[in-house]
Structure formats: C-alpha cells, structure tokens
Design goal:
Order of helices and strands: HHHHHHHHHHHHHHHHH
Number of helices: 17
Shape: globular
Strand content: under 5%
Largest sheet: none
Distance between the termini: 39 Å
Low-confidence stretches: 353-359
Mean pLDDT: 83
Structural class: mainly alpha
Helix content: over 70%
Number of domains: 2
Length: 359
C-alpha cells in the first residue's frame, strides 16, 4: 500500500477528469455499438484491444512522475533488440525461406517491419531528451539505418520528414555550429563504413537492402506506370484503395450508417462476410465506418479538449512523437493498436517537463 502511494497518484483521476471525459464517452459509445454490430466474435477481441489503449493512457496518468530520459533509454534498447531479432529471422526475404519458419505465424512476423518502423520514428524524436550530442547523433543514425533496412515505405518517408523539421528548427534557433557538424559527419562516416562492410560480407544485409529498394521502386511506378493498379506486385496498395472505396460507399449508404456506423468490429463482416480482424488502414475512416460521426466527434473532442498541452509543441517531445504516430495511423493502423500513442499523449499532458532540442 505504501509502495502504491509512493509511485501512483490516484487522486489525479478525480482532479484531471476533464482531460479524459471524452475518452470515457468514446469507450461507452463503443460498448453501446456492440448492440447493433454485425460481428459476433471479433467484436469482443476488438473491445479488449480498445481497453488496452485506455489502460496505457490511464496507467501513465496515475504515475506520479515519469523520467522521459530514462524511459527513452530503455525504449531504445528494446526497440534495437527486437529489430535485431527481426533481421536474424528475416521473414520478408524474397525467397521466403527464413529460419524458425515453423515456429512463427508468417503473417504476423512479416508485419513487424511496420511496427518497428513506427517505434523507431518515435525513438528518433524522444532521444532529444538526452543531453549528450554524440548520443543523440548516434541514436538518430542507428534508428534511420534500421528503418531503411526494414523496408517500411511510410516510416522511411516520416523519418525524412523528421530530419527535415529537426534541421529547420536547429537552423532557425541557431543551434548548428562547427562542433556539431564535425560530430555528425564523423558519426556518418563510421556508419557508412559499417554498412559498406556488411554489404560486402552479409547476404542477409544485401537481401534486406534490395527489398527496401524494390518496395520504393514499386511505389514510384504509381507516378510513371499507367497500369499501376492492374499490376499484381502492387497488391498491398490496391487492397487499401479497395478498402477505402468500399468504406466510402457503405458510410454514405444512409443516415444511420453515417451517424451511428455499423458497430464495433463490423468492417470484416460488412466487407466479405467473415468475422475476423480487418480494418481500412485509416483510423478516421475506421472510426466513422464502425462508430459513425458520433464516434469521430468524441475522438476529436478528446484531442481538442487537451489543446493546452499543445502550446509548447517544439519542446514537448512526447507530444511530437504521439502526433507522428497519429499521422502514421492514417495509413497502416487500427484504432485498437495505438497503445504507445495513448501512453505518449498521457505523458505529454501529465508529465510535461519541457525537454528541448536545444540540448
């Protein structure tokens, strides 16, 4: 009991209820939507997943104090560790003949590259809570290097965007000097040499790099190939476009479908009459499809009601990381898979300690 009092502040649930009242209403509306959902089985799995999002938010809320620097340290270690495991298994090699094949569900292990890409983007932002310039530069380059090898197209695009805005911020605030540039180019030279050695000595490394290049070549054909949508190599893009068009048709079918939605977990049943995990790869469309405009209103109200925490945008690293995850969720996530986003939002709201890029 003494330990709980030292670590947790349960009074904050009462004191800060205005910050999460719309989040609770969103959960209640999700519960209500079960009554008219066409899903009988998966809906309960989705409800449980949604509950874990809220546990992540409220778990951070009641903790008295969070040391962002210490959290980032362990977050980096675990992200790099699981990235290494992914590369050892290498489930996305063109040959599909990866080790431990019999012990992993191929579908889920192959999806790790997207999850790890998201985590590494978050890591690229949180590492600015460190004070040592060398540590920041090395972690930036490590994260970016791994993202390049994972082959996730949107995470890599986000990584470039992060680099761009960080550079603009540092230039505008005159934080770039000769010493910092020397640190950066020394570190960059070391990474280029290491990558060169790995490219010459490791077949796995070459296959990872070739896959990443190939995926971007497929994406670039969108702008050059008039038959892009008919190309079987673009099945991932085509499927997501199909989900988008299907969702648009169903959402605007009538007033009820627009305002109330089809119920939690109903997307797969409406799409192909199967009761399983399936989503349109865009959380806004997913919310409107299953929970209607009412669900979307409650979700947006939750974000807007905490606008006071957005004032120190460039100094609130947890908030920037959460927004980056939110942008990524517009392409490749379900709204029940946003545990880290909710934890970061809670950190930005309740544990805002103003770590800045000036370090």
């Amino acid at each position: 009991m003494i330990y709980i009092k030292d670590i947790y502040n349960l009074k904050r649930l009462k004191e800060k209820y205005k910050t999460f009242i719309y989040l609770l209403l969103f959960f209640i509306w999700s519960l209500f939507s079960i009554l008219y959902s066409s899903s009988e089985y998966y809906v309960w799995h989705k409800l449980l997943g949604l509950g874990t999002n809220f546990l992540a938010f409220f778990g951070v809320l009641i903790i008295k104090e969070i040391n962002l620097k210490r959290f980032t340290k362990y977050f980096s270690y675990f992200t790099y560790f699981f990235s290494l495991i992914f590369f050892v298994i290498n489930p996305n090699s063109i040959s599909k003949n990866f080790i431990f094949h019999a012990y992993f569900d191929e579908i889920y292990i192959q999806g790790w590259y997207l999850v790890l890409g998201q985590l590494l983007i978050v890591n690229m932002l949180l590492i600015f809570s460190f004070s040592e310039k060398k540590k920041i530069i090395y972690n930036l380059l490590i994260s970016f290097n791994i993202i390049c090898l994972l082959g996730g197209r949107f995470p890599l695009i986000l990584a470039f965007v992060v680099f761009f805005f960080i550079s603009i911020y540092l230039i505008q605030n005159q934080h770039i000097n000769k010493k910092l540039l020397i640190h950066f180019f020394k570190s960059l030279t070391i990474f280029i040499l290491i990558n060169g050695v790995l490219h010459l000595s490791s077949q796995t490394y070459r296959s990872l790099l070739l896959r990443s290049i190939y995926r971007f070549e497929v994406l670039s054909s969108f702008f050059n190939d008039v038959n892009f949508l008919n190309n079987q190599e673009n099945s991932s893009f085509n499927k997501r476009l199909e989900y988008l068009l299907f969702s648009k048709t169903k959402i605007f079918k009538n007033k009820n479908s627009l305002i109330l939605g089809y119920g939690l977990g109903s997307f797969s049943n409406e799409y192909d009459q199967t009761d399983r995990r399936l989503y349109p790869h865009n959380i806004i469309i997913e919310i409107v499809f299953e929970l209607g405009l009412i669900g979307l209103f409650l979700a947006l109200a939750f974000l807007i009601s905490n606008r006071s925490s957005y004032k120190g945008f460039f100094t609130n690293l947890a908030l920037i990381a959460a927004i980056t995850l939110l942008i990524n969720s517009m392409k490749s996530s379900s709204f029940v898979d946003l545990r880290l986003l909710f934890a970061l939002l809670a950190t930005s709201i309740f544990h805002f300690n103003k770590p800045t890029l000036q370090n």
